[in-house]
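fold-stage: in
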Amino acid sequence: MKVELILPRERFRSLRRRNVKVLIEESLPRVEDTLRAEREEALLERIAKLEEKLHEMEGEIEELREFYEKALRDKERMMAERDRLRVENAELRKRVEEKRRELEKVH
């Protein structure tokens, strides 16, 4: 793995006199802490977005549940009305047939 660092001239001159390996090893714990904190922050943001999305989806599910329950109630009412109309229609047909027979008897 190759790593290139671009430093200002003054910084490079000050580092030339020091052991860069030791400097890197000394900085490593701080860099690891920084990376860990950035990762944790990114994960917390992602968790927050996912929780928000979850709440939205729960709201949509509740709306769908209410819609479905209303549709079921409407369907039951419509079926009851259909059955009532079938009975009423059968009764009316029976009456019409009786009237027709009475009229045929008269003629």
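fold-stage: in (second)
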Amino acid sequence: MVLGFLKNVIDYLENQILGFNNQIVELADIPESIVAQLPNTHELTGRCVYIYYKGIIQRFSEKKSVL
């Protein structure tokens, strides 16, 4: 039962990591022509989101390794 629970937690972490990786890919796929039209604050916000998602992925990966 405990191993089943841990397997569910690992599966959840893997799904979350995949979801955040997909979000990062979407952020990276925004055409440069669109980014150039945005105010500087929007680009900064996008970069902050990117860094935040990378941090979450790293923490989830570390927790998955521990489990």
